[in-house]
Write a structure and sequence with these properties.
single chain, about 100 residues, alpha+beta, about 25% helix, globular
Length: about 100
């Protein structure tokens, strides 16, 4: 697999995030040289803001994506490259849940 992070050029990535039956189309801006950790933090912030959860709620989210077998995998900075490779130029499709307090 070709390493995609840090990314070489600025990128605006469309995200389709669902929380329960609520689906939102969001976008995250990833500047050039963004690392996987920085991209993951940006995704969390955009998702929390998109669902009006507040910035502090972003760390309390489970964010998952379906892999090529249809299994739901937890999105982390370590699995972000897998999502990017599978999605190609298409939107990232994410399922979001709030962790219990």
């Amino acid at each position: 697999m070709v390493m995609m992070f840090p990314i070489s050029a600025e990128k605006k990535q469309v995200i389709k995030a669902s929380m329960g039956s609520d689906l939102r189309r969001l976008a995250v801006d990833l500047p050039a040289n963004t690392t996987a950790a920085e991209a993951m933090a940006a995704v969390r912030a955009v998702v929390a803001h998109g669902f009006q959860l507040g910035r502090e709620a972003s760390s309390g989210l489970w964010i998952k994506y379906a892999d090529e077998d249809g299994d739901l995998c937890t999105l982390t900075e370590h699995t972000l490259e897998d999502l990017v490779a599978m999605a190609g130029p298409k939107p990232w499709r994410l399922q979001v849940q709030q962790q219990a307090p």
